[in-house]
Design brief:
With 131 residues, the chain is mainly beta. It is built from 1 helix and 12 strands; from the N terminus they run H-E-E-E-E-E-E-E-E-E-E-E-E.
Length: 131
């Protein structure tokens, strides 16, 4: 509920995404199709935190960024997006269909996890335990 409220209130909440509840909780889904290299959303601003938590991404300098839209992006072992931390944007790395969940591999932004979890992404090469 907290994240859904933050998402709804976020000034940068993109209208090209919709928030839905799925098997893993609340997640972002595409309202339009994307090609590899397309920017799916930008995440300027946000809150810098000194401690990692399950809703932050680790920046190259070791600080942790909470952004309400980024926090709702689901994990996948074979994701359709990657995080560009320098440009503060989510970029498609393969074609994404309208109605598909927006995903990235959480292990690409973290050195270790405050909340390891069992992945349920369903990918052929799902790693199982993340973190």
């Amino acid at each position: 509920m907290f994240l859904a409220l933050k998402f709804a209130e976020a000034a940068t909440a993109p209208d090209n995404l919709v928030l839905k509840t799925d098997a893993t909780g609340e997640a972002l889904y595409a309202r339009a199709a994307y090609r590899p290299g397309d920017v799916v959303f930008c995440f300027e601003g946000g809150e810098l935190r000194s401690q990692r938590d399950q809703h932050t991404v680790e920046l190259p300098d070791g600080r942790h960024l909470f952004h309400p839209v980024l926090a709702l992006t689901a994990h996948a072992c074979e994701p359709n997006c990657c995080v560009d931390l320098h440009g503060r944007r989510m970029v498609a790395i393969r074609s994404i269909s309208s109605g598909e969940a927006i995903t990235f591999d959480y292990e690409t932004t973290e050195r270790w996890f405050s909340h390891p979890f069992w992945c349920r992404c369903g990918a052929r090469r799902c790693r199982g335990r993340i973190g």
